[in-house]
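note to self: the first set is below, dont mix up w the second
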Amino acid sequence: MRMRVVRHRDRRRRAKWRRGLWGGGEVLVTAGVVLMLLVVHQLWWTNREARQGAERKVEALEREWGTGGGDSGGSASGGAPSEPVPSPSAATGGPTGGPTGGAGKRSGGAVVVSGRPRPSQAYAVLTIPRLHLRVPVAEGVSKPDVLNKGYVGHYPGTQQPGQAGNFALAGHRNTHGEPFRYLPRLRRGDTVQVETGTATYTYVVDKILPQTSSRDSLVVRPVPRSLVRPSYGYDEPGYYITLTTCTPEFTSRYRMAVWGKLVSMRPR
């Protein structure tokens, strides 16, 4: 009977392989835990922090305006009667729904507020009943100063609420409060409200652009229309609102846009 001879060198080699495999396994497990923690941070913690901050800002704006909360039903009923929407030719060049506390005046049936919001300043509240959404609107679309706080950002250079032209907004679809996560659920005829320190503006969803290029800047022009998909958009001046977000979920490759038209204004 032949006996197998095990050399010490072979034993050391096998022990080295076992240590290497064990060490590699530990590294993979550690990396998996770290990745899991990053996912939890992005998908849960940032949402939690941003939503709480956004809710506090809405409450602060309501206290500043002396109200206990807006009409979440999406209608302009109750309180003062709604005023008719002025024709585009009657609009003034001044911003409407500007910084809270500004001196308001009427012109062409709209409420015009002197001054402009400062960059990153939260100055309005967006309410979308179908999405159960009530979120601050801040000036600008900076990620660290606006969007990552769970706010909706106002595109600089576009109009203010109630003003002739296009009041254009952007919001995250995933992480950091994700206020526009369910934007695809909106349907034609849904209401969208914008409250400022001087008035509440009610828009009605009119058109939905499911997907376009992230560089399609025409969707936020005064008369919004898609450059990539020209069949989507408008041909005449009006009082528009545009809501934009990334699509598909968890990517930033494309954009979607929801357009609405102003139907009423109720002064405070």
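second set (the one i keep forgetting abt)
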Amino acid sequence: MFNVVNLPKIELHCHLDGSVRLSTLKELGTKENILSPDIEEDELRTLAEVPEHCPSLVDYLKRFELPLKVMQTETALARIAQELVEDASADGVRYIEIRFAPQLHQLQGLSLNAIITAVIQGAKAGEALTGTRSNIILCCVRHLSPAASIELVEAGRSFLGRGVVALDLVGDEHNFPPEAHAEAFKLAKSYGYHRTVHAGETGIVDNIRKSVALLYAERIGHGVSLEKDAALYADIKAAGIPLEMCPTSNLQTKAADSYEAHPLHRYLNDGIRVTLNTDNRTVSNITLSEETQNILNAGLSATQLKTLYRNAVSVIFDSEQEKQRLMALWPDEHGI
């Protein structure tokens, strides 16, 4: 059997605030008097990682409270972004798109410009150290106002081509549908942002339709519930719109029942452009190698794994040259 860690991998759906090293959380939390210096690892994990039996996405999202508290300075943001690229590279990831919501990092008065700059600088420092290429996706937040999303689009515009590649919409999908932020995504499209939207993660399949029709989504984050709507399923398949799937996270939020029953298998077999991702390395306590192994153990073949990789390479928000570089990294048929 091949070593999954050694295989090149692509990470398209990874949240910065959900992927902070526990050691960094403890150090920064202690420094900011948020955590006790004597905090035990088990207690820290309880705060930062989702429990085995998580009742819902809303409960899952509570695990972001601690990292967001320590991610309020430029130094912390740059460090955490750099460490994420380093950790991903050590896991065999050769290209990563890191997403985060700048407006959640303004508790100490940082400007959106300063926040975005810090994250780009950190990610690019990690890229220089490891060779793993990184790009940044800015996230609008569902429960914030439409005006806040437009503000973010405007703030990020000058960073297009300098680290920022796309816009996303995140947060409580159940209570905040996507259409409220349609104007921001229309503006983003006109400025040249790529677009990916969290949709269909909590069973609301119509959010996938709205994200494509109203928010101009080129990719869908999760999309677990797509098969609930046959007509939409056919449209997504025909259009070749990719799904950024995150099985472990979906099991934890009860969007799927098991790795074996996860719709990734059915979608992939039917020609949907599925990709495999972690969602949150720390919150979900998962690496992309572990995610890959879990799906292999659940019945994915080596040939299908190569298809997942090729799918991801073909839909990165980067140049054709970068796609060619990444495609050339995958071993030949006899390499696995």
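remember for set 2: The mean pLDDT is 95.
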